[in-house]
TrEMBL record:
Coiled-coil portions: none
Taxonomic lineage: Bacteria, Bacillati, Bacillota, Desulfuribacillia, Desulfuribacillales
InterPro entries listed in its UniProt record: Na/ntran_symport (IPR000175), SNS_sf (IPR037272), YocR/YhdH-like (IPR047218)
Protein's recorded name: Na+-dependent transporter
Pfam family, one: SNF
Alphabetized PANTHER family for the sequence: TRANSPORTER
UniProt keyword terms in alphabetical order: Membrane, Transmembrane, Transmembrane helix, Transport
Organism: Desulfuribacillus alkaliarsenatis
GO cellular component: membrane
Principal localisation: membrane
Cell compartment(s), UniProt: Membrane
Membrane-topology descriptor: Multi-pass membrane protein
Domain of life: Bacteria
Residue spans crossing the bilayer: 38-63, 84-105, 141-161, 173-199, 219-236, 248-273, 293-326, 338-360, 380-397, 418-440
């Protein structure tokens, strides 16, 4: 059966940007910025995005288009009879693990769409509302199942009729909702303190873990190291430009994260809430913000709808990584693969879902089950996968061949010797140093 391809370059850009734009840009980015001191983290994150994220994202897309294969097949095609295919397998595993807990958080956001419709009222116990939801048994499981069903349905429909059609609708909706929320946040009295927190760096707050989280966040939000961009790149036509398209994807992804910061922190500071609320920022602090602002029910509904839309655009790319591998390597039909793999991922997500209620005392290195999944995938598998992909592109595939693939056809952004230096040396060394330093800080200090 002929491999499906994107019907247009715009279709690819929106799908790849949809893969990148997700909970990582809004839920994860906002709470990491809040807990890591604000603008100092944002500065390190932006440097990481453009010096590490963009070259690696372009490399992964090129690997996919060159081989027209899934992550495992791509490494096998370019380095046959070698263990390099394990890097692709690591990406498939990362996508699998991330979606298993990503769907849980996405389920929370779906549930809060309906909670917001019921109205957030000043004086409500929003912490109790959130804790009550996540520590109950059945509601989180049901919403986890609903979100996975939506994701499976889109993937089962195919690349063009499923992924491309969905992202062409969802991405413009996402941007529209986000802009409305920014305007509302910036027009609140006292919003300037939130803008200052977001834009004025205090480098004294920076630690080794700050760098690790910045690298982990850039990999998480750009879908690096999890095989998604290799998979999406494999559906590109030969005449589609890579470097400019990758630039659009990075720009859209980073833009959404920054715009989300302007939507969230001015409102948080204007109404006197703590930006360092951690992972509960979106679910405990922001409902209180919406309750305190005029027309808060409308804006609360829009925010959680935005969060759910963003989650869905990323989730479909995560499931597609594993489905593409099964379809290519095992010969399954797309529908069979989507239903089976999606069902297994749903079951894999049950331990962290139930961990909030039945196994709340189970910890690993001081982390609950959900945080353990996140730590293993985001802070270990993704940076390690990106590091090994850079080494592979530079020293096995060779940067000469990678540059030739990226520049064919040549775009506005032309790759040359700077790419060889970055991918061959700077990226592997810097990611390795940050991983070791950050993990040491996290585990032993």
């Amino acid at each position: 059966m002929a491999r499906e391809q994107w019907t247009s370059n715009l279709g690819f850009i929106l799908a790849a940007a949809g893969s990148a734009v997700g909970l990582g840009n809004i839920w994860r980015f906002s709470y990491v910025v809040g807990t890591e001191g604000g603008a100092a983290f944002v500065l390190i994150y932006l440097v990481t995005i453009f010096l590490i994220g963009y070259p690696l994202l372009t490399t992964e897309i090129a690997l996919g288009r060159k081989t027209q294969k899934n992550p495992v097949g791509a490494f096998k095609a370019l380095a046959p009879n070698s263990p390099w295919w394990l890097v692709g397998a690591m990406g498939v595993l990362a996508g699998f693990v991330i979606l298993s807990f990503y769907s849980i958080v996405a389920g929370w956001s779906l549930a809060y769409v309906f909670k917001a419709l019921g109205g957030f009222n000043a004086g409500d116990d929003f912490t109790g509302m959130f804790v009550g939801h996540i520590t109950s048994v059945w509601p989180p499981i049901i919403w986890h199942a609903v979100f996975m069903a939506l994701t499976i349905g889109i993937i089962a429909s195919g690349v063009v009729n499923g992924i491309q059609r969905a992202t062409k609708i969802l991405m413009p909706v996402l941007f529209l909702l986000l802009i409305v929320l920014v305007v509302r946040g910036l027009t609140l009295e006292g919003a300037g303190a939130g803008v200052a927190f977001f834009l004025t760096p205090n480098l004294g707050d920076v630690t080794g873990e700050t760098f690790l989280r910045a690298v982990g966040q850039s990999f998480f939000t750009l879908s690096l190291g999890m095989g998604a961009l290799i998979t999406y790149g494999s559906y590109l036509k030969r005449e589609d430009n890579i470097s400019d398209s990758a630039g659009w994807v990075v720009g859209l992804d980073t833009g959404v994260a920054i715009i989300a910061g302007f939507a969230i922190f001015p409102a948080v500071f204007a109404l006197g809430f703590d930006p360092a609320s951690g992972a509960g920022l979106a679910f405990m602090t922001l409902p209180a913000v919406f309750a305190a602002m005029p027309a808060g029910t409308i804006f609360g509904f829009m925010f959680f709808l935005l969060l759910s839309v963003a989650a869905l655009t990323s989730a479909i790319s995560l499931l597609e990584v594993v489905v593409a591998w099964v379809v290519d390597e095992k010969g399954w039909t797309r529908k069979q693969a989507a239903l089976t793999i999606g069902g297994i991922i749903f079951l894999t997500g049950l331990p962290p879902t139930l961990g909030m209620s039945l196994w709340s005392n189970v910890t690993f290195l001081g982390m609950d089950i959900l945080d353990t999944y996140d730590f293993f995938a985001s802070d270990i598998l993704l940076p390690l996968g990106g590091l090994l992909t850079a080494i592979f592109a530079a020293h096995v595939w060779k940067t000469k061949n990678a540059v030739e693939e990226i520049n064919s056809p040549k775009g506005t952004i032309v790759f040359g010797n700077w790419y060889t230096i970055l991918v061959g040396y700077i990226i592997p060394i810097s990611v390795a140093v940050v991983m070791v330093w950050g993990l040491y800080t996290k585990l032993f200090s």
